[in-house]
Amino acid sequence: MSLLRHTKGGEVHERQALTVNPAKTCQPVGAMYAALGIHKCLPHSHGSQGCCSYHRSTLSRHYKEPAMAGTGSFTEGSSVFGGQANLLTAIENMFTLYKPDVIAVHTTCLSETIGDDIPQITENAIDKGLVPEGKFVIHANTPSYVGAHPTGFANMTKAMVDYFAKSTREDKVARRVNIIPGYVEPADMAEIKRLAKLMGLDPIMFPDTSGVLDAPQTGVHEMYPAGGVTIDELIAAGDAQQTIALGPVCSGPAAKALYAKCKVPQTTMGLPIGLAATDKFVMAMRSLNGGFVPEEIKYERGRLLDLMTDMHQYFYGKSVALWGDPDQLVGLSELLMSVDMLPKYVVTGTPGKKFLKRMGDVLGDKVHESFVRQGPCADMYLMHQWIKNEPCDLLMGNTYGKYIARDDDIPYVRHGFPILDRVGHQYFPTVGYKGAIRVLEQILNVLMDRQDRDSPEETFELTM
Amino acid sequence: MAPDSPEQAVELTPDGTLTSEALREELLKAYPKKSRRKREKQFIINEKTVNEDGTVTLPQIGANTRTIPGILTQRGCTYAGCKGVILGPTRDIVNITHGPIGCGYYSWLTRRNQTSAPSDDHENYMTYCFSTDMQDENIIFGGEKKLAAAIQEAYDIFQPKAIAVFSTCPVGLIGDDVHQVAKDMKEKLGINIFGFSCEGYKGVSQSAGHHIANNQVFKHVVGTDNTPRSKFSINLLGEYNIGGDAFVLEDLLERCGIELVSTFSGNSTYDQFANAHMANLNAVMCHRSINYVADMIEKKYGTPWIKVNFIGAKSTAKSLRKIGEYFADEKLMEQIEKVISEEYPAVFEAQKQYKPKLEGKRVMLFVGGSRAHHYQDLFGELGMKTVAAGYEFAHRDDYEGRDVIPDIKIDADSRNIEELHVDADPDMYDSDKVRDKWAKEEKGYSFAEYDGMMTQMAEKALVIDDINHYESEELIKRVKPDLFCAGIKEKYVVQKMGVPCKQLHSYDYGGPYAGFRGAIEFYKDIDRLVNAKVWKMIKAPWDE
To answer: Which H or E element spans position A34?
Structure first.
């Protein structure tokens, strides 16, 4: 029986109002994820209980880790009179019971529609003595009816700059580099830091969820695990020599804000997914370290290239359907193109027309062979209809792809957010040269498994 | 049936030195004054008073009141209770979430309600997420047009028999009239279309959403198909087919010769709801989420309801017998006994195998609106002791029993939830059923009765409503239970402390746990979890 039995090929009905099987979720979960990347930070969802409950549940299902956050528990009364009382009570309770260094408030569609002024309420909390000395309340506006979860991540990351970064000296600190990693896994953040350190730089990464959402089992629940960017580091970001923002959607706004506020020069580039994008990232760092690339990184690049050479015959000409976040999709598409695969169907619910231009640049002369959409109604249902009309060889995206994979019997690699039914994504990076090896290995495995499953006896191969 | 003899005092820790009073006082101390005053009422000790006439008075608990902001609650919202819990498991209604994308996204396939359509020709929309994905211009200029267009598109593409619309927070604030849009589109398209005002901020928890869902399903669907049902026909209310529970119960009832007209709402269809009023008895599993429908059906059609519990082998047998007793048919009762005797040997066998490995272990359960009670039966069968329990979103009657309902103060938050006025149906009200009910009551058969969780719990056990992270963590640190039962938000926190956590919303992706077969499955899973080797590996060899 088919799981998505109501999805049919044929004429694709253009929808204006109904989104079916979205390729995005809402801003606040991105803000919550970003805030968890500050050390000793307790995220707070200023709205109804359900938002916070849903976000914590999704993060916990994805990471198999605690995702601690508070909620304003709005009732009908708060919705009429505003959420000031809720936020004041929350601030008092959170500092008293949970003792964070920072409370990172993000708004919801509810509090945004009412028009709650978070800075004004926070000031009020400080006046009332509810914010202990040396502790902070920061905020980001994340209405769910604007943007999508990557936007929420971007807004909370920008808030880190707005609230903390300081320019304290005339000249900038050499080799100190701010890296904004984008909406990636804890393992990716750790990998990016590792590369920066190998390049002889002193990276400040924000947010940094490594060591937070991949924390070890010790028999003790640490409300605030060892990881996360510290307040001191966020302040020091204002004196860095350079900011490297990975992913224009998720990281661009914070980098620009940091330039505006502290005159830290910034380079915004794609996520370092695949060889070319990682090369670009390494070159950006090379321009800051006096111009060297260490042997270890050269070695890693060589190994990736070697694998690409070895496996190219199996990748060549294969078409792929992708859904997810703009920055991820551009990076993955570039990686696929580099081994002569074709990103044939690409959808993101995250609105933004620039995405189409970026995809156009990646696809080059293949642009006419692909279907690319963004925004509301650019959803997995639409993508599935395209697939029904003309199948593809591979699916890449989050957990919700498993229904299409089974119905249409298509090899499938899980990538992105959320992944609710597998582990590993939080531990093994997909960025950098090493990460690309993992992505290619995953793709190759599912393609080879398919060949093994489908080969008739006479062409079944031992060696591939 | 009770896990412990309820008269016996609880032993929080094996050495018996920690008292409930001391623990409570310790925990409450940390709160700011106002928060403490609130938590005092919801954090109580199960001290029962035996009255002169032998009846027992339970202490009063604060429940179904507002959560304190910033406390790190387990609770969700009204939308989650309405769309996620009650309507989520029905496979052939196109459920459109009217709002920004998140609400629809998070309630997309995340609750493990299994469903079994006979074939591909039967509709199943549970794998789909439908949303109006409101953008800022819809918030500014109103979303009614987009909603109407979305309904039209859903109809054009999917041709469903019914469409339901669920309101999210901003919808209520901007004043979109989802009911009017639904009504207009119903007239235009000629299929049943109805809306739910289940904005997340209504009420204090999911519970309000259950009530709203009950109301609308009753108003718009129940009673629209008068196809007669057999003599021994029932509805199973408040069973959501997590992990396949409903499948087990469907099989069990069928073998007993009991016709299941509808389940609210595990493995259910629209047509089952439409015909539900033709059943001769309502059997209520999760009292909290569905008692409203049971009450309304009784008022309108005269069909009585009884409380059942199919979690735990003993409770399952008892519930089947209670249904048999209601129909008072020799043959039916014989068949029920036959089924019970077929099932029980395997249960005894499993108990013999697992009980020795689990007996005496201490459990805490903080979940839901009935599970924290029902699962105590299963733990009791394993000889495990419930030392603390509480609900996430239940009301006082779920703790203290339905006798307290007249004494429950209706606060402003509850008053916001519509209480449907229901009259007897002039044509369909069955007075014979009512007379039969009275006659049975005379003979001591109890209808519409639920004693709640606390009667069954040990003396001085801790009963904590709407527990928060701080309290959970402190309880675990001080009591070191052998098992903690909660949900996904708590799961990994608890396990980081070296204590296994069983999710009783999702069953940790296991189950079924209902009925006899489910009980055996549960014993096995609890043994696997509690006695897993990993819990003994936390200390490294180089640690002192």
So the answer is: helix A27-35
Whether B77 and A109 lie within 8 Å, measured CB to CB: no
CATH architecture entry for B78-220: 3-Layer(aba) Sandwich (3.40)
Taking residue B431's Cβ as centre, other Cβ atoms within 10 Å add up to: 9
- CATH of span B222-353+428-449: 3.40.50.1980
Residues of chain B with CATH 3.40.50.1980: 78-220, 222-353+428-449
- The upper half-sphere exposure of residue A39, i.e. CA atoms within 13 Å in the direction of its Cβ, equals 12
Under 8 Å CB-to-CB from A173, ≥6 apart: which residues?
Answer: A202, A236, A239, A240, A241
Buried b (16+ CB within 10 A) or exposed e, A64-97: ebbbbbbbbbbbbbbbeebbbebbbbbbbbbbbb
Structure tokens at A234: 């966020």
What distance in Å separates the CA atoms of residue A93 and residue A101, rounded to the nearest whole number? 14
Please, which residues 285-344 of chain A have a Cβ atom closer than 8 Å to chain B?
Answer: none
Which residues fall within 8 angstroms of residue A183, CB to CB, at 6 or more apart?
A30, A33, A34, A149, A150, A153, A247, A250, A325, A327, A328, A417
Q: Would you call B29 exposed, middle or buried from its count of C-beta atoms within 10 A (0-12, 13-18, 19+)?
A: exposed
CA dist list (Å): B484 to A102, B487, B495, B518: 30, 10, 9, 20
Residue B311 neighbours by CB under 8 Å, 6+ apart = B371, B374, B375, B377, B378, B513, B514, B518, B519
Q: Give the model confidence (pLDDT) of A180-237 as tens digits.
A: 999 999 999 999 999 999 999 999 999 999 999 999 999 999 999 999 999 999 999 9
Average pLDDT estimate for B279-289: 98
Q: What is the mean pLDDT of residues B418-433?
A: 97
CATH topology of domain A173-293: Rossmann fold (3.40.50)
A327/chain B closest Cα distance in angstroms: 20
Sheet containing B385-390: order of strands: B43-45, B462-464, B385-390, B362-366, B483-486, B501-503
User: Quick check: helix, strand or coil at residue A68?
Assistant: coil
Over the stretch B456-514, which tens digit does the pLDDT of each residue have? 999 999 999 999 999 999 999 999 999 999 999 999 999 999 999 999 999 999 999 99
**The pLDDT value given to residue B7:** 74
How many angstroms separate the first and last alpha carbons of chain B? 44
Q: Give the pLDDT confidence of A109-167 residue by residue, as tens digits.
A: 999 999 999 999 999 999 999 999 999 999 999 999 999 999 999 999 999 999 999 99
User: What does the block give as tokens for B282?
Assistant: 């309502």
What residue spans define the domains of chain A?
A: 27-156, 173-293, 297-457
Q: Can you tell me whether residue A42 is helix, strand or coil?
A: strand
Q: What is the CATH number of domain A27-156?
A: 3.40.50.1980
Q: Is residue B39 annotated as a catalytic residue, yes or no?
A: no
Annotation marks residue B210 as catalytic = yes
Q: Using CB atoms, which residue from B146, B158, B173 is nearest to A17?
A: B146
- First vs last C-alpha separation in chain A: 33
Q: Of A171, A51, A180, which Cα lies nearest the Cα of A106?
A: A51
Element (H, E) at A345: strand A342-348
d(CA B32, CA B518): 44
The alpha helices in A128-226, defined as continuous H runs, are 149-164, 186-198
Say which of B77, B101, B492 has its CB closest to residue A49: B77
What distance in Å separates the CA atoms of residue A418 and residue A270, rounded to the nearest whole number? Answer: 21
Q: Which of B82, B473, B38, B73 is nearest to A72 (CA)?
A: B73
**Helix, strand, coil abundance in chain B, percent, nearest 5:** 45, 15, 40
**DSSP 3-state assignment of A138?**
strand
Neighboring chain A residues of B138 at a CB cutoff of 8 Å: 145
pLDDT digits (tens, 9 = 90+) for B177-213: 999 999 999 999 999 999 999 999 999 999 999 999 9
**Rounded distance between C-alpha atoms, residue A18 and residue B160, angstroms:** 15
- Top-level class of domain A297-457: alpha beta
